[in-house]
Amino acid sequence: MKRTLIWIAALVLGAVLGVLGFGWLDAAMGFIATVYTRLFQLLAVPTIVLAVITTFASFGTKGSGRIFGQTLTYTLLTTFAAATVGAILYILIAPGNLPLDAINGQEQTAAVSTELSYSEHIISIIPNNLVRPFLEGNVLSLLILAFAIGIALSRLPESENKAVVVKGVLGLQDLLFKLIGYLIWTLPLGIVAFSAQLSAQLSAGVVASSIGKYVLVVLGGNFIQFFIVLPLLLLAKGLNPIHVLSRMMPAVLMALFTKSSAATLPVTLDSAQNRLGVSSRVAKFVLPICTTINMNGCAAFILVTSLFVMQNGGIHITAGTVILWILISVISAVGNAGVPMGCYFLTISLMSGIGAPIAILGIILPIYAIIDMVETAGNVWSDSCVCAIVNKKNEN
Questions:
Q1: Is the pLDDT of residue 77 over 90?
Q2: Residue 88: its H or E element
Q3: CA–CA separation, 341 vs 292, rounded Å?
Q4: Do the beta carbons of residue 252 and residue 3 sit within 8 Å?
């Protein structure tokens, strides 16, 4: 509770500093925020790899198979629910088409990131060597490698060689968590910087070009998922959502400002184990997987944005279209990396593939920073819920 209060105080202080409008202060806060983001991204990749390897190596195939099945089930359930909520809101609120002159001149802004097709995006996760995924930070490729190494270790006969390898990996993980602990201890400074940076952007009018109903659908869907759908799921499984959220609040707040569930993973693991009381084995297994495939906010964004872009491109939106894109958004979100703007670029790829007017995404870009913050916080909250449910199912 003490840490949460400190983080909230840092949040408020940063917001106040951001609205002062001092150029030197904004630059300093931006520098600090960038430093913290880079440090968490640095620690995120080895955290994911070591967590999956050590969990599979110690669980073996029996335990890990059951827990993986539960994790996948609740991940797909929550992601499907998020996309469905977004679809319902889109139908009810019914955003209108943008004026044609609002789209003119925006093509180049959105098109710069369409070099990779969606099929190439999928192929890119298949590793062709051991080094490149680490250099590129390709989380899905690293996850495949970690699964393979962990399963191989679990199937190796007990021997001195196996013990040395396992102890070495566990030792590296202990060292990593010590570094994470130091970083978390200094994190209030980072929260001040993140909050000040956002506050300065808002006061400068970065998100002033809001497109109304579309934004209402996207953010409304995320809020409903966050405050209604996920708490109801926890209640249905015999868990107190207020208790779970209060314990996981550091991770949710961190996700809000880093806009990266992968970069937030160290804080999520720390909160789950040390604050929520989740088993270390379950947390280290479930959360890295959820960080990669459990993208509730991304699914809602892909669905709503795709419908909005297609509608503005003259495509008639029918019930069949909505259902089809619910499925596409869920599958796409599961394959998306937990990095800032990952959903935005993935949506561009999808819309480019069907010939929809991706110029509209250039109009969305100025306000995407806020959307990305909210949906990332929702993703980490969903990760936390899945982890808590799986932990409860495996307590005995």
A1: yes
A2: helix 23-93
A3: 14
A4: no
Question: What is the torsional sign of CA 53, 55, 60, 65?
Answer: negative
CA atoms within 13 A on the CB side of 6: 11
Tell the residue number behind the tokens 């993703």, with chain if given: 379
Report the alpha-carbon distance of residue 304 to residue 300 in Å, rounded.
Answer: 6
Exposure letters 32-50 (e unless 16+ CB within 10 A, then b): bbeebbebbbebbbbbbbb
**Residue 368 is which amino acid?**
Y
Helix 261-274 and helix 23-93: axis angle, to 10°?
A: 90
| Structure-model confidence comparison of residues 202 and 372, the more confident one | 372
**Nearest CA among 256, 252, 329, 264 for reference residue 295:** 329
Q: What is the mean pLDDT of residues 105-132?
A: 58
Residue 275 in tokens: 């604050």
pLDDT surpassing 50 at residue 116? no
The pLDDT of residue 341: 62
Could you identify the residue written with the tokens 């005995």? 396
Q: Give Cβ neighbours of residue 370 (< 8 Å, ≥ 6 apart).
A: 207, 219
- pLDDT of 104: 47
Question: Would the pTM count as exceeding 0.90?
Answer: no
Question: What distance in Å separates the CA atoms of residue 214 and residue 218, rounded to the nearest whole number?
Answer: 6
CA–CA dist 186, 356 (Å, integer): 46
Confidence of residue 276 (pLDDT cuts 50, 70, 90): very high
What DSSP character marks residue 76? H
